[in-house]
Amino acid sequence: MKEQAYVGRFAPSPTGALHAGSLVAALASWLDARAHGGRWLVRMEDTDAPRCVPGADREILRQLAALGLQADEPPLWQSQREAVYQQALDDLASRNLAYPCACTRRDIEAALAAQGHEHRRHEERVYPGTCRDGLRGKPARAWRLRCGTDAAPVRIAWDDRRLGAQSQDVTHEVGDFVLQRADGIWSYQLAVVVDDALQGVTHVVRGEDLTDNTARQIWLQQQIHAPRPVYLHLPLVLDARGEKLSKQHGAPAVDVADPLAALRTAAQALQLPVAEAGDVDGWLQRAVRAWACRWANGNSRER
């Protein structure tokens, strides 16, 4: 059987310009695609319009171009794909794999408290299944995906190229998760899985903070009969307080006036040794070879 051609992607949320952390993800995904002789796509994950900053998408594309990170196809905007996501949800609902939910956040917290669950900060709120068997006269607010039962829980195992063997009991650690929010916005989980499938993405390279999403995305892939990509979760770039560098916490935009300096900083965060070069193209060619030595020819697990 012929091996499937490599397709990778970089999928930023345009809530601001590229910062040091998102540049690391962009560079790593581009290098992995080039080291495998594959294609690299750019997708704007802008379904959550209230969080998006006007013009940030264009600024991200400008920064990528200045850094020599060219995509192999025109960018895709998720905000233009409402009909695709609706079709996926309709299909899941028609097979009773997705159902409407009337619960507010307060309802969920009250139900969990009644079950004796004390919520801890940063801990996932496991949906208690209140609306699984019907809305009980309440109006629908969101849509959720069924994720097994106590008798038949959904347990997902996968292998990460950096972190190694991973697993999660989606039923008991996540519960039935949201596909479409109460405000009509499509969830990250649904949009990313549908788009990865339709774009033929075979490899996902992204930050380690998204590792926890992987099991539920694999479960959703199974429900829509989509192939499972190969995953590589990268170490996060941290700020001076040891927290994830993010636009939300004021991470400055990457200065692309000196693209080589920006690229070298990102390579250092990836612990990728790349010699100095006189131009961006020459540096990127060397970076691809360095990446291939570490990642493309086998796993590079952390010890």
Shape: elongated
Question: End-to-end span in angstroms?
Answer: 34 Å
- Average pLDDT value? 90
Element pattern in H and E = EHEHEHEHEEEHEHEHEHH
The biggest beta sheet, please? 3 strands, parallel
Oligomer: single chain
* Number of extended strands: 10
Q: Ranges with pLDDT <50 over ≥5 residues?
A: none
Content of β-strand: 5-15%
Which structural category do the helix and sheet elements fall into? alpha/beta
Radius of gyration: 20 Å
Strand order of the largest sheet: 1-2-3
In DSSP terms (H or I, runs of 4 or more residues), the helix count works out at 9
Overview features:
alpha/beta, three-stranded parallel beta sheet, Glutamyl-Q tRNA(Asp) synthetase, 10 strands, three-stranded antiparallel beta sheet, 15% strand
Secondary structure blueprint with pairings:
Blueprint: E1 7-10, H1 20-35, E2 39-44, H2 56-66, E3 76-77, H3 82-94, E4 98-101, H4 105-114, E5 142-145, E6 155-160, E7 164-169, H5 170-173, E8 178-180, H6 188-198, E9 203-207, H7 214-223, E10 230-234, H8 259-269, H9 280-296
Parallel strand pairs: 1-2, 2-3, 9-10
Antiparallel strand pairs: 4-5, 5-8, 6-7
Helix pairs in contact: 1-8, 1-9, 6-7
Description:
The protein contains nine helices and ten strands. The chain has a three-stranded parallel β-sheet with strand order 1-2-3. A three-stranded antiparallel β-sheet has the order 4-5-8. It has a two-stranded antiparallel sheet with strand order 6-7. It has helices spanning 20-35, 56-66, 82-94, 105-114, 170-173, 188-198, 214-223, 259-269, 280-296; strands spanning 7-10, 39-44, 76-77, 98-101, 142-145, 155-160, 164-169, 178-180, 203-207, 230-234. With 303 residues, the protein is an alpha/beta fold. Helix 1 (20-35) packs across helix 8 and helix 6 (188-198) crosses helix 7 (214-223). Zn(2+) binds at residues 101, 103, 127, 131. ATP binds at residue 247. Pfam families: tRNA-synt_1c (PF00749). Its EC number is 6.1.1.-.
